[in-house]
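We treat protein structure as text, and this decision shapes the records that our systems exchange. The tokens are whole numbers drawn from a learned vocabulary of local backbone shapes. One such record is reproduced below, unchanged from the form in which we store it:
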Amino acid sequence: MRCLRPCFWPLLAGLLLLGTFGGCGPGNPLGRKAISGKVTLDGQPLEHGSIAFEPMATKGGVGTGGVIAGGSYSIETTKGLPPGKYRVRINASQGDEQVSTSEAPGPSSAAPPKSLLPPKYNTQTELDCEVTEAGPNQFDFALESK
């Protein structure tokens, strides 16, 4: 019983230090990398759209996506990609992409917006890229409307 008091404080201090410095492991366990680039359509910056990266590995891959604005996209490290090969899908539609807040969610009577891009860039994509450990992981895409 004598050791209970003198041993308590060093034990408590050790546990506090372990909790402070032990953490939950590395901050980037998948080794994600920031991704960025430019997207042009017929030589002009693609004003608005979306870009998605899907892992080409058959098992256990991580994908991500982002917004294209003014011909550029940027995905920060925390939402980036681990090194590997990826299939790329780019979508862009005519008109303003604003969603009406006065309309209830669900099917709409309005016609869907017309895609600005051929299927070879999205539903039947032919685009791919490889994210590397060393980088830079900047991927530019020059698209053609025809």
About this structure: Residues 14 and 20 are 10 Å apart (CA to CA).
